[in-house]
Every structure is written in structure tokens, then in C-alpha cells.
Predict the 3D structure of the following.
Amino acid sequence: MHDRDCLHRFLFEHYPIRGHIVHLDAAWRALLEHRDYPPAIRDTLGEAVAASVLLAATLKFDGTLSLQMQGQGPMHLMLAQCSSELGVRAVARYREAPDGRDLAALSGEGNLTVTLENEDLSQRYQGVVPLSGERLAECLRGYFETSEQLPTRLWLHATDKGASGLLLQRLSDDSVHTRTGIKRPFELPERDEIDDAWRRVQLLGDTLRGEELQTLSDRDILRRLFAEDDVRLFQSSPVYFRCRCSRDRVVGMLRSLGADEIRSVLAERGEVEVRCDFCNRAYRFDPVDVEQLFATTPAADRSETRH
Ligand SMILES: [Zn+2]
């Protein structure tokens, strides 16, 4: 049985190269619950979710990593987010079912944006590249080639049952060993040798079939790909579906729309219902709730909304 709903980190003992493998199973199915995405969109969303976990895992930060695709095609928006605690959520918006599976058919021309935000939004990093390649993994390859980040490759696979991904990253030095306090048992080889190893592990990564990535255990994946290398596999961390929506956030959003707007919805429908885009949870406000929303608004705002 393969590893489920977890992230595994691994390290090449002889080279400054590390990797992560992630599988989302129950977390992915929970994320899809109440959703009826066309398969091409669903699978790409799964790849994006797996990628967001892999990228979040490479970073030392406290906050949320977002992967967003925006384009002119049938799927105009896709957003996958992973927190530093490995909680994921994601959503895709589309006008119609796409004709194909590749990014051109799904999103058309557009951009891929990677955003990193601190929990208190005090720090923000954003990188944007045009959508390119057939799949998200290729587009991300372009992202890493053009950005000033560590050389990184991803392999992604998703179906209705699960979403999985493999990441390989070349480190600039021995920082992981230093940071984790693990003593590398060997001297680092010359740069040429590291270059060769980096090329070789990527070629090996290219031989991994999506189905293998999804069904083999992580230990078997590493054995299958890197039988020649000494690879250290660390303990896994759980990955789960977690939405950060709350009634408080919805209240804030309703207040920002203003009393007139909300009261008119109330007059029309008898209640105000807001569904979270990510988890489909419904937040309902009856007439009493709505009056309470605006009763606590500062006086200045209240007089404005009366006009
Ligand atoms: Zn939610």
C-alpha cells in the first residue's frame, strides 16, 4: 500500500540535492466533495494542489503559498493554496468544459503566479510567468528557470482518486545538512560531478510514470528511480484539507458590501447565504443576523448607508 495523505522529504547523501514526495488521497477527495469539475480541470487542479504542497515544503516560512493560474480560456482561474502546516485548499472557476487536457486548451494565454504570504500579511513575495508547456509541471519548470531560485523540477499526477507529486531541488550548498544537523557522511564532490548528478536525477525523474507516482510507496519510488544513489528518506508529515474560511470573515465581507446591498438580497430571498468557494460551506444570515451585522457598525458608516 502506498503512502497516503503525507509528505516525505529525502536527501541524496552524496550530492546537495534533495526532494519531496507528496500524496493527497482523503484530503484530495474531501477537497473535491460537492464539486463537479470536468476531468481535465479536476486533474489539473489536483496537480496544482500537489505542487503547492511540494513548493511550500521547500520553504522556511510561516504563512501560505498560493499557486494561481489565470487565463482567457474556459478555465479562467485556478487557485491552490498550502499553509506552512501543510493544510491545502483549492478552487477552479470555469465558463465551460475545455476541449483538451493541456494548459492551452484549459487556460489559453495567461499567467502562473506563485505567491508567498506571511500569516499576518506583513511579508509578501510574488513571482509571475506566462503559462507555457502542456502541463503545470512544465510551466513550473519555466518558472524556476527564469526566477532566481534554486534549480527545481516537479513531476505531478492527479486523478479523481488522488493527487501526487515529486520534487527535486538542487541546493546551492550543504545548508540542509547544516540546518538539520545531519552530518553528511561524505565530502561534497566537485561541481562538475554535482552538475552531472543533477542532470542524471532529472532524467531518472522523467522516467517515472504518473501511475507509479500514484500507486507505489515512497520507498519504492526512490528505489525504482535512484537505485544507484544513497538516498535518506525522512519521516513523513501529514497533509490535510483545511479551509480557513470562518463566519467572522464572511461577516467582514458582508459589512464591506454595505447594508443597502445586503438588505436588498434579504428582501429578495428571505435570507442571505454565502458559500465558501473553497470548501462549499454555507454561511446563512436571517433578517435578525443581518440587522445585528449592521447594528455594530460604527455610527459614521451607518449614517452613510442610510442615504
Ligand atoms: Zn471554506
User: Anything to note?
Assistant: The radius of gyration is 22 Å. The longest strand covers residues 63-71.
